[in-house]
TrEMBL record:
SUPFAM superfamilies, sorted: Galactose-binding domain-like (SSF49785)
Alphabetically ordered keywords of this record: Calcium, Disulfide bond, Lectin, Metal-binding, Signal
Protein known as: Uncharacterized protein LOC113092311
GO molecular function term, any single one: fucose binding
Family classification: Belongs to the fucolectin family.
Organism this protein belongs to: Carassius auratus
Gene3D superfamilies membership: Galactose-binding domain-like
Gene Ontology BP terms: regulation of cellular defense response; regulation of complement activation, lectin pathway
InterPro entries xref list: BG_Antigen-Binding_Lectin (IPR051941), FTP1 (IPR006585), Galactose-bd-like_sf (IPR008979)
Length: 367
């Protein structure tokens, strides 16, 4: 066989690139709370302004200083509030004229909360948006000051901007899932104060339950915020470990520990500082038998993605001459396509120094 064996050194550069996560996200949090009216008109319940249908409205009767009030159970920084007026009713258009939108923390006296905007008029069936520029409060109020007034919102939206949470929209997984408590519900921004089963994640009762988010690139993680469930059993989270790094060995549960959760009170969000640990996977695991891991929210903050350069030295066996630049280009593109086949589509290869070529051994001709 007329073949030469070459051992060649090759250095190349690996660079990991990925799409930058959106810096912030605007989310309608209105349905995460519960609504009340100063007085109920017929079956026009307060919650009908949160049911996603503009055809079912909430209303007070005609009264002095009526109000509709939403309790979000937590303080939010409100970017804007939207109100939809009753469709197919041009005579109702004026009902909301002069209504005040307020954001604040006082439930006993709605008018002691600061005003975000005053409604002039909302055409029938239209949705108008009012900027609140980050006003902070737990209650969102629509009140109409004066005698013989009513408040008739058909839909109310409360939009909050959440800062750059690296977990947003990422792939998540957990060791098992109890019913509707899917792993994605831990990264939906909703702390699950009203209805945990549609806003929190949970495993079954099992040995070493875990949950993982794949940040899809390596980040320098400064902190992880965990929100515990409000409705029951806050002690179940005790002993959970937050682990961060790049390995999927044991499903990522062997990665280094950022923190061990001693306890989190019911409904509270606790922050754990990770001292800029670098990693792609963030895991929570509770070691032990008959444990259950329930997470109402997991937020991950940090910097990145980090560009990772790796220098590799390779020995190749080839009959080609690497002194030919065209061959060098072709070799890189072949390596690239092999990497793509194996799932490394975000790798970029470059020569950092010209390959050396040497004949180490010549195969004996077959007899
Ligand atoms: C509501 O409470 C939060 C947190 O205590 C505070 O930051 C915010 O300023 C309060 N809002 C008003 C309108 O007082
Ligand atoms: C409610 O608050 C407003 C504004 O602070 C105040 O003028 C009014 O007297 C208060 N009403 C009651 C019943 O305390
Ligand atoms: C699922 O959750 C319910 C309610 O918390 C619990 O009673 C049940 O044992 C859980 N199922 C499993 C298989 O762990």
């Amino acid at each position: 066989m007329n073949m030469r064996d070459f051992y060649k050194s090759l250095c190349f550069l690996l660079g990991f690139f990925s799409v930058q996560t959106e810096a912030e996200k605007e989310v309608n949090v209105a349905t995460w709370g519960t609504a009340e009216l100063s007085m109920l008109y017929s079956d026009w319940y307060a919650q009908k302004a949160l049911d996603g249908s503009i055809y079912t409205c909430s209303s007070t009767p005609w009264q002095t200083d009526p109000w509709w009030r939403l309790d979000l159970m937590k303080t939010y920084s409100v970017n804007r509030v939207t109100i939809t007026s009753k469709p197919d009713c041009s005579s109702c258009e004026s009902w909301l004229n002069g209504a005040e939108i307020r954001v604040g923390n006082v439930s006993s006296n709605v008018s002691s909360n600061p005003v975000c905007a005053v409604v002039s008029t909302i055409p029938t069936g239209a949705t108008y948006s009012y900027s609140c520029h980050g006003m902070e409060g737990r209650y969102i109020i629509v009140n109409n000051p004066g005698p013989s007034k009513c408040v008739t919102p058909c839909e109310v939206g409360v939009y909050v901007i959440f800062p750059g949470n690296l977990a947003t929209g990422r792939n998540v997984k957990q060791s098992s899932t109890n019913g509707s408590w899917i792993s994605e519900q831990a990264i939906d921004f909703n702390p699950g104060i009203i209805k945990q089963s549609s806003a929190c994640s949970s495993t079954n009762v099992q040995t070493n339950p875990w949950w993982r988010v794949d940040l899809s690139s390596v980040y320098r993680v400064s902190s992880v915020v965990i929100t515990n469930r409000l409705d029951c059993c806050p002690e179940r989270i005790n002993g959970a470990e937050i682990r961060i790094e790049n390995s999927l060995e044991n499903n990522g549960n062997n990665n280094p520990i950022c923190a061990v959760i001693s306890s989190i009170p019911a409904g509270v969000s606790s922050t754990y500082f990770c001292n800029n640990m670098e990693g792609r996977y963030v895991n929570l695991i509770i070691p032990g038998d008959s444990r259950i891991l329930t997470l109402c929210e997991v937020e991950v903050y940090g910097e990145g993605p980090l560009l990772k350069r790796t220098f590799l030295k390779m020995k190749l066996k080839s009959s080609w001459s690497l002194s030919d630049p065209a061959v060098r280009v072709q070799l890189l593109s072949q390596l690239q396509s092999v990497l793509v086949q194996r799932g490394f589509s975000d790798v970029k290869l470059q020569w950092t120094q010209p390959p050396e070529q040497e004949v180490m051994q010549k195969e004996a001709d077959p007899v």
